[in-house]
Design a protein that fits this description.
The chain is α+β, with helices and mostly antiparallel strands and 247 residues long. Helix content is 56%, strand content 14%. Among the domains are: 73 residues; 79 residues, Pdz3 Domain (Roll), CATH 2.30.42.10. Strands 1, 2, 3, 4, 5, 6 and 7 form a seven-stranded antiparallel β-sheet that branches. A hairpin with a 2-residue loop joins β6 and β7. The termini are far apart. The C terminus is likely disordered.
Length: 247
């Protein structure tokens, strides 16, 4: 009996030791502390990266704003423009070589003539008359002169010559050696900007007289002689200098 009591006490003490050893520690392990530190550092790097990205984006927007709104352009006038295209036109004209005041005048005059042309077309429809020709372009060309009008077209990205898309068989153009891809920029010494110009010049003067076409081919300027009258080429989506041609 006396021997049993010490054994029971020893077993009880051993059980308490095992239970204490199995109890979870209230302090985090070294590994957990290290992992927590790494995660915190990663979050800090991500936040720093986002901040840098925001700064770069803001800088890019500021640079673009300065490019689209240079100091020599009147901001109030630009903001009063109806469309983004109109806002950019003055800047494009300055880039093309016009003085700022001249560029703003051309921009304003161009929009005035466009509105007048729209009103003239509406009045012609109401009266049952054919729509008027491109008076808008003719007026602006006369006011600017050919050299400045060419720069105006270039600033807008509009072609300033007649690009030959097709040469008709047995035509004056074919007999004179014109080729697909030629660009006609002068007829009988007069500047040609579009098919309408070319048609009007071809029908003026004495039919059959020799005239000179100034043509650009593969970067070289050529002079082609042919009789005045229908040329027989297709430029863009129109048949140039071929009145009455049925498409």
């Amino acid at each position: 009996m006396l021997k049993t009591v010490p054994l029971i006490l020893a077993g009880f003490i051993a059980g308490l030791g095992i239970a204490f050893w199995l109890q979870p520690s209230s302090e985090p392990s070294v590994e957990l502390e290290a992992a927590s530190g790494i995660a915190s550092a990663a979050r800090s790097e991500v936040r720093a990266g986002l901040a840098d990205a925001r700064l770069e984006a803001a800088g890019a927007r500021e640079k673009l704003s300065r490019e689209l709104d240079p100091p020599f352009i009147d901001r109030a006038r630009r903001n009063g423009a109806a469309t983004l295209q109109e806002q950019r036109l003055t800047v494009d004209l300055v880039v093309a070589g016009f003085a700022p005041d001249r560029a703003e005048w051309i921009d304003r005059r161009f929009r005035e003539l466009r509105m007048e042309a729209m009103q003239a077309q509406a009045e012609a429809r109401r009266a049952g008359r054919p729509p008027p020709g491109d008076v808008e372009a003719a007026t602006l060309r006369a006011e600017l002169g050919d050299q400045d009008y060419e720069r105006f077209l270039a600033a807008r990205g509009v072609p300033s010559s007649v690009s030959v898309m097709r040469v008709l068989a047995s035509s004056a153009a074919e007999r004179a050696g014109m080729q697909r891809g030629d660009e006609i920029f002068s007829y009988d010494g007069k500047r040609v900007f579009n098919v309408q110009d070319l048609n009007e010049l071809a029908l003026d003067g004495t039919r059959g007289e020799a005239v000179v076409l100034d043509v650009r081919r593969d970067g070289e300027n050529l002079r082609i002689v042919l009789p005045r009258g229908p040329i027989g080429v297709r430029g863009g989506d129109l048949y140039a200098a071929t009145p009455g041609f049925e498409r």
